[in-house]
Design goal:
270 residues
Amino acid sequence: MALHFTWVFGFGLLGNIISCLVCLAPLPTFYQICKKKTSQGFQSIPYVIALFSAMLWLFYAIFSENAMLLITINSFTFFMEFGYITVYLLYATKKDKILTFKLLLLFNVFGFGLICALSLLLTEGTKRVHVLGWICMVFALCVFVAPLGVVRKVIKTKSVEFMPFSLSFFLTLSAVMWFFYGYLKKDKFVAIPNILGFIFGILQMVLYLIYRNPKKNEVAEPKTQELSEQYCSDINIAMPKLNEEGGNEVFEAHSAKDQTKEAMDVTNKV
């Protein structure tokens, strides 16, 4: 029994550490936002969704037994995401601010408020834990499916520019730790979503290995096209000019004639 508890605590602790590192990943982005005093076109929806997810898991962990490790990581995530959104709102455009406030009202106020009210009024005890667990699990599965858009973009563009390997690696490692934590703790609501997280993490890393070195001809193609356009523009400058009578004479020919005439005049003067 003591050994089993040790394994559960160990995987939960590792999950906390790795998830904290993942949560700190956006810091360089927000450092640039503060430095340049502009949101630089970044979207706030990932941070609003992460905040909503942390709120859901916190609410679930409060009613679940021996879920202190879930409370610690989701409390940390809650404050970090709250900080990210605050900084974003300080430097975002008016349009982005309005959109962010709408998302916060939809997910974090009305959505979370409705879940809290219904679960507290209509359920109690073990049933409440199961209802909240199902809600958290379904939402977590939706969050894990979200990166499919990035996967599709990588396959289409054959570029891993928008899918850093380090982030995919730590997300996969985090999924592994939380799966074993949920499995050993017999908490299916934690374990099941992380199976999908592990699968998508492996998929992202495999795609990274496939497309990390783009083919030379694909890289050179835009440069060739650019040179071709430049060359065409140079040719267009030297095109013959139509005169009023419909004939055409090349500028270079005129220039040669003028130079010959000048040379003859100089010779005659000598």
